[in-house]
Design brief:
The protein is built from 18 helices and no strands. With 302 residues, it is an all-alpha fold.
Length: 302
Amino acid sequence: MHNAFYQGQYQAVIDFDTTSFSSENVLPARILQLRAQIATGAAEEVLAKLKGDGKVPDLAAVKALAQYATGNTTLAIGEVEKLASTYSENVTVQILGGTVLQAGGKSDEALGLLTKHQGSLEAYDLFLIVGSEQKAYSTFYRVALIVQIHLQQNRTDLALKEVQAARKWAQDSLLVNIAESWVGLRMGGEKYQQAFYVFEEMAQAPSTSATKSLIGQAVAELHLGRLPEAEAALQQAMEKDPSNSEAISNSIVLDVLYGKDTSEHISSLQSLAPEHAYLSDLLEKSSLFDQAATKYSAKVTL
């Protein structure tokens, strides 16, 4: 169930039969299914389901994530900050709270919350031996989120350090493999090919193929300069989910590399995800270019 979530197989997570789960796993499974619903665009439905469940910190954290997904950014961040002040050792609060804080531009607060675990990464091997399977998965996800934040901060060195530490106690973790591939795509060189193998294995196996893994494969192909292969992977992703903003944004990149007109894909992205990071970056760069252009005057030759 966890691996399906990591791979982006959200409908499989939602449909997963949890009736045979032990009592200690019922709540974690419910949280994972609610998160999968949010990922498929059903945040409003999740909020409706969670009415009256706000006293459970784990579910309150899910509610904050759903609020953020529906555009209630200030409310969501406020809820997370309240939860963090009281339940900072709760792993669901750490993971979902860290997600909301990072998405809201509060990277330092997100990292501060995510690192409130018991012991250092070097001590996690002992923690996993005495802990439950759910604790292990929570640990993997927390590490992956820390890696993502460091990469968004352009601190590849810290992201690499996090992955290397995780490798000491999580040799076979799918999520650690994925996180290592993210770092590899930033480092370049032979790491591009290594990352490609991870995403391609997930994307092309019928049992694990999902939009997210196909996009990961396409990004690796783009870095390797294999544009036709990247295009094929993105087309597969778009067939699975035509409104996926990451598939569209990477299609824009592909258009640029091919020298094609990007207006259609940009228009689609503006319609589906007007706050997307690609569009924000494009707007910022256009503004900087216009400012620089004002310093120069056109030279007219008669």
